[in-house]
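quick one: NAP bound model?
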Amino acid sequence: MTSTTPHPTPLRTLGSSGPAVSALGLGCMGMSALYGESDRAESLATIHAALDAGITLLDTGDFYGMGHNEMLIGEALRTAPAGAGERALVSVKFGALRTLDGGFSGYDGRPAAVKNFAAYSLQRLGVDHIDIYRLSRVDPDVPIEETVGAMADLVRSGHVRHIGLSEAGAASIRRAAATAPISDLQIEYSLISRSIEAEILPTLRELGIGMTAYGVLSRGLISGHWTPDRRLAANDFRSASPRFSAENLQHNLALVETLRDMADAKGVTVAQLAIAWVLSRGEDIVPLVGARTRGRLDESLGALDVSLDADELAAIEKAVPPGSAAGERYPAVQMEHLDSEK
Ligand SMILES: NC(=O)c1ccc[n+]([C@@H]2O[C@H](COP(=O)([O-])OP(=O)(O)OC[C@H]3O[C@@H](n4cnc5c(N)ncnc54)[C@H](OP(=O)(O)O)[C@@H]3O)[C@@H](O)[C@H]2O)c1
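yep, here:
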């Protein structure tokens, strides 16, 4: 699944050691988990449409639907039109531990566990290598050198092409990069999640590591489509997310309305404005969009045609300054697992 043929979507390179990928990636998590019901046929059609549009980066995790998401992507790649599946690069996160009732019970970054996770992922995806293999959360009980050392073994054996991190803090990023080349850090970054700007982003740039940004629409909150009357299933991540809670939602949606005024004036949608803002933050940043339907995908792709001038960027900055959202980006128990927030 190495990119070989030219395609129309612009490319960005993930750090000094990583691959060139499309400027937008498709995050497939919501097709299997955490955002309520999804439609399998529409998920497959959305992945195919993304490949057809030139998206070459598909993001997943072995714990998204406990293997469901990898099998879905494997099927999409096998059934894609000739050539499209081969051009796709798959980024796989590992390390999260699940319980029998579908809960999460911690993380495992031990070297033997890393290789075990990888063996299962290769089987579920139906591929002979993983393009970017990514530690989903730093395991506080295992030195990161040991975890990344095991990932480097997988690169040497040909089972993995590139090593990625997720939600790691600056100190861990430095230790990981001293152990093996790191292509990119995956981390939440959006108009309302900007804590990486102080230390993490400068560290990535100093070390020549790229970034794949998730939650660029803050899980739908700043997409312009969210309405306060939306009912969420108990297993929807957002039903426990502080930013969607009754006491914070009104404040956060008021921020979205200021973005809507700007988007309307420019003739784009709120989601396109929010994605274009992340794209404008640097050529080293690749936003992952969580589109689950072809309609949402089309809207996201439109962001590639939106350029924001200095006055527009200043107006956005004024309307939604750093720290303006109400509520943390994860529930307290999950914030505890974020090395990036320590
Ligand atoms: N490393 C990590 O810790 C981590 C954490 C979370 C996610 N991720 C990765 O990042 C990917 C993206 O994250 P995310 O899904 O939270 O991001 P997101 O793009 O901020 O949110 C996706 C949600 O936004 C809604 N939406 C509304 N308009 C949209 C549009 N035009 N395009 C796309 N979505 C739109 C979707 O709604 P509907 O489908 O309901 O209409 C979906 O529920 C995930 O799929 C996953 O691969 C990584």
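Confidence is low (pLDDT under 50) at residues 1-7.
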